[in-house]
Amino acid sequence: EDEEEEEEERMRSASLLDRPRRKRVITYAQRQAANIRERKRMFNLNEAFDQLRKKVPTFAYEKRLSRIETLRLAIVYISFMTELLDGCSRQEAS
C-alpha cells in the first residue's frame, strides 16, 4: 500500500513537471522596447569591438577582422606583451 502511494506521488510530481509552461504574452510596446534595448546592446558591443580592433596590431591590407579573430588576436598580443614585459623585468633585475 505504501508503495502504491509513493508511486502515485511520483506520478503526480512528474505530471507537474511535464506540464507545458504557459507562454508569456508580451504586448507590442514591450516587444518594441525589447528590440530597442537589443539594438542598443548590439551597437555598444560593436563599438567595443571596433575600439579593440584599433588597439590590436594587424597588417593594413587585411580585411576587417571578425569578432572571434579580434579576440584571438588580442589574446596573442596580450600574451606577447606580457612576455616582453617579463623579459624586461628580468633583465633589469640582473
From TrEMBL:
UniProt keyword Hydrolase, yes or no: no
Leader sequence segment: none
Annotated PROSITE patterns: BHLH (PS50888)
GO BP annotation list: developmental process
An example Gene Ontology molecular-function term: RNA polymerase II transcription regulatory region sequence-specific DNA binding
Superkingdom of source: Eukaryota
Domain BHLH: from-to ranges: 29-81
Keywords assigned: DNA-binding, Nucleus, Transcription, Transcription regulation
Protein name as it appears in the record: FER3L protein
